Amino acid sequence: MRKALITGVMGQDGAYLSQLLLNKGYEVYGLVRRSSTVDVRDNRLHWLGVADDVKIVDGNLLELSGLIRAVREIKPDEVYNLAAQSFVRTSWQQPILTGMVTGIGVANMLEAVRIEAPEARFYQASSSEMFGLIQEQVQSEKTPFYPRSPYAVAKVYGHWLTVNYRESFNLHASSGILFNHESPLRGIEFVTRKVTDAVARIKLGLAKELRLGNIDAKRDWGHARDYVKAMWMMLQQDQPDDYVIATGVTTSVREMCRVAFDTVGLSMDDHLVIDPTLFRPAEVDVLLGDPSKAREKLGWEPQVTWQDMIREMIEADLKRLSRRD
Ligand code: NDP
Ligand code: GDP
């Protein structure tokens, strides 16, 4: 039985990846940082019905000794480094923590693997945010980075360190440059989930308005379930490499929001309020990925359109909120 260690297992991607790997017969270990609140701990794993099947390991990306012990004891065949301070906006309020977790945390994990399991295959969760102020209209593995937030700067460090460990120590280390991906399990602070949650609340009479910042920003949105499959595919290749994972379609926040309101028969214009305090100090105006390399080398194709994904998210939020009443 193959063993996988996932950091950030309680996050959106960690949950979907756990489900995928369990279905493939893996023994799945999930690194979780200590929290005093037990009831929210494995919320997402419960949602997918896999909470009892993931073996939880105590650890923090900031504590190398614990990571070394975890990797020594588990001896994983595959390591997926998904843990991060992942919210761009917070990275301006907590730039140092973001640098430590999202950047140096990668160094800690790579060191643990290099010392204790150099034969293991390693996946680093890199991000399209690294392209930031885009240098090419359509971004591929060859497009230069221009990060626009402390989060993106930390991700650039993690990305290049992964490349460097591959080249320096011959690790099977791959970096997935994933464009935004969402699902009913997306954190509530991200724009798609903020919108679907608000639309569901307004529909149920629990709220009246939705406050957003820059709705002209455009993103290439895909479904998390499709994207974790790409992570796994990267680690099944003979050679480690870097891949852009995207749909090749870009949509504005405004258009995404309109579709969300349309889905429940409401008008966006009746409820949307633009709140200048929600604008960011520096914005990533548009992202649009070119997934050709992933299609050709991995045989990866996204299955879910952003419109279907938004509808799925609204249905899930309606269900959640109705249950709570
Ligand atoms: P989430 O924010 O949902 O999950 C991140 C996880 O990391 C959480 O479970 C969090 O734990 C954990 N974590 C944070 N700090 C630490 C720490 N110091 N030690 C151990 N664990 C920690 O992110 P996603 O699942 O959406 O994303 C997964 C990865 O992919 C992240 O690295 C993200 O930056 C990256 N990414 C995501 C994209 C997306 O669109 N979703 C796009 C491109 C890259 P806790 O539950 O305790 O908060
Ligand atoms: P990001 O691409 O990782 O930053 O993902 P987000 O979902 O947080 O943001 C996507 C885009 O939506 C960014 O350009 C934001 O500026 C824009 N946006 C507009 N209003 C909001 C809002 O209220 N919350 C969030 N999270 N983003 C918003």
Which ligands accompany this protein?
Answer: NADPH dihydro-nicotinamide-adenine-dinucleotide phosphate, guanosine-5'-diphosphate
Number of strands: 13
Beta-strand proportion: 15-25%
Query: Ends: how far apart?
Result: 43 Å
CATH architectural label of the largest domain = 3-Layer(aba) Sandwich
Instruction: Kindly report the average pLDDT value.
Output: 97
Strand pairing plus helix content: what structural class? alpha/beta
Strand order of the largest sheet: 3-2-1-4-5-6-11
Query: What best-fitting shape do the alpha-carbon axes yield?
Result: globular
What number of domains? Answer: 2
Residue windows where pLDDT falls under 50 for at least 5 positions: none
Task: Briefly note the CATH topology name of the largest domain.
Answer: Rossmann fold
Name the helicity range.
Answer: 40-55%
Report Rg: 19 Å
What is the compact description of this entry?
This protein has eleven helices and 13 strands. The protein has helices at residues 12-23, 43-47, 64-74, 90-93, 95-116, 150-169, 191-203, 224-235, 253-263, 292-298, 306-324, and strands at residues 3-7, 27-32, 55-58, 78-81, 121-127, 172-178, 181-182, 210-212, 218-219, 222-223, 242-245, 251-252, 272-274.
